[in-house]
From TrEMBL:
Chain intervals with Basic and acidic residues compositional bias: 1-20
Region annotation Disordered: where it falls in the sequence: 1-35
Full protein name: HTH cro/C1-type domain-containing protein
Matches recorded under InterPro entries: Cro/C1-type_HTH, Lambda_DNA-bd_dom_sf
Domain of life where this protein originates: Bacteria
Residues covered by the HTH cro/C1-type domain: 38-100
Bilayer-crossing regions: none
Gene3D superfamilies: lambda repressor-like DNA-binding domains (1.10.260.40)
PROSITE patterns: HTH_CROC1
Pfam families: HTH_3
């Protein structure tokens, strides 16, 4: 006797002709989209902020504690970013979330 699974044959997704797109990280090796914009916003401040200064500002303005090491990993695409961290970065660095994620609009 054959079960339901035996009767139903999985059809490939016609949109991708059997190949689904890979996640961003698999294509680029990065774990976030934000790193380059985060570094740019930090370095374009007058005066420029070090990672330590950004860490302290995040703690003051958003009560988020991120070490210099964690910030460096985010900037280099080696660490994922939580949504609340994105919001804190945008608020602390006075840039839009859209620019921080997409880099398409001026901060």
């Amino acid at each position: 006797m054959h079960g339901y699974r035996d009767r139903v044959r999985k059809q490939p997704d016609r949109i991708y002709e059997g190949r689904k797109p890979q996640p961003l990280g698999a294509r680029t090796g990065r774990k976030n989209l934000t790193g380059p914009q985060l570094r740019q916003a930090r370095l374009e401040r007058q005066p420029q902020w070090s990672l330590e200064e950004l860490s302290q500002a995040l703690l003051r303005t958003a009560n988020i504690e991120l070490s210099e090491s964690a910030l460096s990993k985010i900037e280099n695409g080696q660490r994922s970013v939580y949504d609340y961290e994105l919001q804190a970065f945008a608020m602390t660095l006075d840039v839009s979330l859209d620019w921080l994620v997409n880099g398409e609009h001026l901060p």
